[in-house]
Amino acid sequence: MKLKITALFGIIIFGLTSCQKEVLGKYYNIEDDKAIHYIDFKADGTFFHYYKKDSIERSHSGTWTREDNKIHILNWEEYSKEYLEIISGMGKAEFGRTLGNQIFWIHGARLDITPDGSNNADYIKEEDVEEVRAERKKIEAERKAYIKDKDTFIILITRPLKRLES
Predict the structure, then answer these.
(1) Which of 25, 74, 86, 165 is the most exposed place for a label (fewest CB within 10 A)?
(2) Which fold has domain 2-126?
(3) Exposure string (b/e) for 112-150, b if CB count within 10 Å is 16 or more?
(4) Series of mean pLDDT values for 10-residue runs along the chain (166 residues)
């Protein structure tokens, strides 16, 4: 009986620590190519959040916990331009403002501010940053090519047609 309880306790502890381990490390926000912007999650339940662009350099730290597919962060300062635009309607749009508790939803190697992963103001696990950047550049190039072709097509259609005389 004692062995069963010890084994069960070990499985529970392993499960809890492995859930934490999968989110440990740096996650980069790459919405601005000219900025260095990341969150570093530590095993002791603390985080370090860093932002640097040109002469602006901000950082802060706090604590985090995980609940299912969410990370709860306490003492959060916001540095994401896209997220600041979203919350500007709530009167909180100041760069570096302390928002208090922030929730990130875990979507594989991404952390997002929306439960369904629909927002682009996300953070990407350090080892996946280059792959995500390359994919985003490819998608942007395809989008621009589509728009260019679409505009060309529309221009051809909207030109006045000459009347053919017989």
Answers:
(1) 165
(2) Lipocalin (2.40.128)
(3) bbeeeeebebbbbbeeebeebeeeeeeeeeeeeeeeeee
(4) 47 40 85 89 94 89 92 85 67 65 86 77 86 85 80 53 51
